[in-house]
Each structure stands twice: as C-alpha cells, then as structure tokens.
Amino acid sequence: MSQERLQKILAQAGVASRRAAEGLILDGRVRVNSRIVRELGSKADSHKDKIEVNGKRIVAEKPAYYVINKPREVVTTLDDPEGRDTIGQLLRRVPERVYPIGRLDYHTSGVLLVTNDGDMAQALLHPRKAVPKTYVVKLRGNIDVPELDALRNGVDIGDKRPTGKAEVFVVREDRGNTWIQITISEGRNRQIHRMLEAIGQRVQRMSRTAFAGIEVEGLTPGQWRPVKATELRKLKRDYLNPDKRAKEAEDEEAEAVAGPFAKRKGGGAGGARTRSAGAAKRKTGGAKKFASPGTKKKAGGAKKFASPGTKKKAPRKKKATSPGRKKKAKTRR
Fold it and tell me: Among 26, 62, 69, 106, which is disulfide-ready with 219 (CB 3.0 to 4.6 Å)?
C-alpha cells in the first residue's frame, strides 16, 4: 500500500477526525516507528509502519457507518470526566472504534451518525456542504407568523452574520404548547436554542429527526443500526464525491437533451453524435441514389451528339408517287 498523510491514517483508523488528528500530531502524541512526528505533512504506510497514539498502536479498520437514536441526558462523547452517560457506553457492542459526527446537546435526542471514516466525517461537518438537519421543537405558548418568517429569513444570534435561510412550519398546537419543525443547513453552537431566544421563545424540548436525509424511524432511544447501503451511496454521492455527482448530472442532462433515440444508440452525448452521423449518411446516400441515374443519362446524351464518330441520321426516304400524280404536277407548272 502507498504512503498516505498521517492525519488521514489516524482518521481512517477511528482515532479522531482529520482535524483532531492534526492536533494530536502537533502535540507530539503520535509516533511512527518509535519516532515522534510533529509535522502535518508527514506520510506513512499503515500496513508497514508502526504507528502509535499515546503509546497505543493503531490498526487501520474497514470503514464503518452507524446511526444511533441518542437519548436525552447523554453526552455526545466517548467518555466523560464528570461521570455522565455517554454515547461510548451505548456503542460498546459496535465492533469498530467509531466516534460521533458532530454533537447533540445533552438534553437533545435524535439522529446521530457515528463512523471511523475521517473523510466522511469531515465532509458532513464542512460548512460548504450545507448538510440539512431537521429538528422538532416544543415551545410554550403560541408562535405567530412574523416570528416564523424571522426564523425562515435569518435572525441575529450574536455572531458576525445572521443565520441562513431555514424551513420552518408549525406541526401542531395542543394545551398551550406549540411544536414546530425547523430545518437548517448550518452547524453553529446551540443554533436552534439561540435562534428561538432571538425571537423571544424558549426551547422546552427538542429532538433531531433527520441528518443528511437519514432518520431513526423504528429505533427506540439508545438503539443503533448500520447505515443502509442506499443511504451510504447517497451520502458519498452528495457530500463525499462532488466531482462524481457533477459528472452524473452532466450525463443525465446530455441524455435528456438527446432524447430516447440517443439512449438506444448508446445514450448521452455519444448517442447524439451517432444520430447526427446517421442522419448525414442517409442524406448523402439519398442524393446519390436519385441524382446518379439522371446525371448518367444526361452525360450519355451529350456524348452521343458531341462525339465525332457519331453516325449522321439517315435521310428520310421520299415516298413513291404514281405516274398520274407526277403528270398532273407537271401540268400545274
């Protein structure tokens, strides 16, 4: 296996995200073949080199992806110095060493992805990817239309810029409480809490119902399951492999423009070229078919009258006349 950047190897082994792995390297907590490495550009071979973090050797694992329905009053870390319940305790039976992608507040429940794939974790957490996150929030009292519009258009939560656009609507109202669903594509610290506080509301209870399109339907709090193959393909297509996504979009657009004929000939732009070439060939062949006979005949005719060796047309024979008619003609003269 070829050498790779050290922080990427650590991320793939489930030690930490790529950015957190960079911190481990800078802190001098990583050794390669018993030598401390502090340079971020350093490379190693995970199958040949001995790589250690905090004195423990790491081994590259096969990428693994899980979704867990995080309960309330659980910390989104693998261990907690205060002794609170952690995600790590709920994932003890997971065979791989995985870590959470992002965080959920201590009192927030719902969808949480965990993985040992550092590239995937980094892609889903990157602000430019605009990964959608959907929450259902319980509020005390009512929320009016101007407040909903403010949440949708962006509010000032004390950062350098207002929040981005959000999808917000009322789910139900019951016994003096209101439940709203809100979808954001940012990941600022305690963002939902701060957005609602900015319009004079306060979160009573909150649950994340979807993250990057993945839900926890059928899972009770504390339960987890592997990410489905269809879900994983979509994650890779939408967030991990933007180049591949762009190419697929171009192919689909070319096929739509070319139409069903091109699909039979091979699809996409290639089909369109086949169609054009075929049409040109038919057009040329048609001209030859109908023009040639006439052209040959015309040329033959020209040869017949222009050639020096052409026989002159024989003079027309005069009809014989009877003696009586001949005599009569002389008399007339």
Answer: 69
